Amino acid sequence: MFSRGFFLGVLWAGLVCPNLFAQVTVSAQIDTEQLVLGDLAHIQVEVEGADGSARLELPAVKGLSLTQTGPPSTSSQTMVVNGQMTQYQAVTFGIGVGAAQPGKYRIPPLVVVFQGQRYPTQEFGLVAKPGDSGGVMTLTLKPNKTKLYLGEELWLTLTWTLTQQVEDYEFRLPLLAQKDDLHLGLLPLDPKTPTQDLSIDAYRVAFNRSPVGMGGVKYQTGFRLSPVQPGTLDLGSAQVKGQITQGFVQAHDFFGRLVQRPQLKAVYATTPPLSVTVLPLPTQGRPADFSGAVGNFAVKALVERQAYQMGEPVELTLVIEGPGNLSKVERPKLRGLEKDFDFQENLEPGTLEGEALRFKQKLKPKAPGTWVIPPLGFSFFNPQTGAYQTAHTNLLTLSVAQGEKLRDDEVWGHLPEPGPVASSVGLLSTEPESQELPVWFWALGLVLLPLGYAVARLQARRPKPVALRVQAPWGPKDLEPLRELPPSEAFSLAQERLSALLAWKFGPQTHLDGDSLDPQTARNIKELQDWIEARLYGSAAELEGEQERLVRELSQLQAELTRPQGAG
Fold it and tell me: Where is the signal peptide (predicted)?
């Protein structure tokens, strides 16, 4: 027989976790089985008996892109009929389906995962056919190369050409869903050509806008990305759906008056599916000091001057420049300098200026004389030749003087040598002189002794000071340049500052959903990361006026993360 505790446990579980005994049912439907290239089909998945913790797994189908169109919507309802309480709750997912090329497709079952159980939907069939461009628009997505080495940057040019004005449009680029994995960014636009923002998926992207033919217009922008593994990289296709006016029809307005309304026609444009081949870097001939730099670089060494005084630091600047992915270039090794110079290797990242990356290092000569900074090597892989190369800096010669030695009386704070001590008899007595302390000295001691004891007791009761933490990587004053920089550069620098602050506070492997992090702080950090990231894909016009908010948000987060534990 079951004990009373068993039944109480079952009752408690039913009240606290109603989903534990709720029946989960999954239903799914697609709005069309005929898809026009450039348009989307929509699948809706409804899960009854589940809450917001349910998640959806989407299958991978070659030639199709399946993306969740937003967060799932939840609904719940409680009804009491004749004393019987009924609870209903459900979760609904929306999925957009796009095709890259014509054909017949089979979409395997989508899977809902809830409380450790998997609930599949039925499979779907879909036929994709070319869309009609109406002869008014074309769309191209062109890479700068179809074969590249791992570590190289790939550049893509997206061009949308119109010969007639469109009333509305929907732009899609599935590549943006991989922006984090591929380190996707925008290429600089032509500053001499006007720009205009267009919406692509959930992002505002700046395009150069130029006239074409008689009343036509061409929009063009560029993306840069870095493949992270060798093999075939599928980039999908770009798609756009537009509405153009084809004549007018008669209709009645709200007041019953006869009016002319434009008759709209949907037109479509899509690019062929794009894929590139990513080659691995060869192992043969790889130098021991190779750190992953891929490009065609030159390197040089600079100092402020050739003459120094002993003890004066020498600031050495190493400049790496040339076409290539400078974001992956590491600091060259300072080999051969330990014998003649004292230094602690500077671990700060280099400063990127156009196509040049600068690293700074302070050196201190160990002795006066003429010293040589020998050529320093920097190894990289040159994709143009398909081989590794090592570039060397120029030789530098330094003259280090001993410096003039100061006399004792020129040293600040120097005390003169004491003169002879005279005695009353002209000789120094070897016997200690007997001195009797005055009465007031003893009286003062009797007063100060208990007072000193009381002060010592008060000091002992005071809370001990908290040990000083390692200084944060930056403070509020370091955010002032964000107000003066161009908006795009300000948000890029802000992203670097935020990453440095989080690494200092939580370590490089910290996850924002960890148990050691306050949930509200984690949400604040995530929202700030998403906001900065979204603005990085925006236009300069969209970023105007946002820099003040950027400084304010970063300052507040820095103050929160550097506040001592227990402080209010």
Answer: 1-22
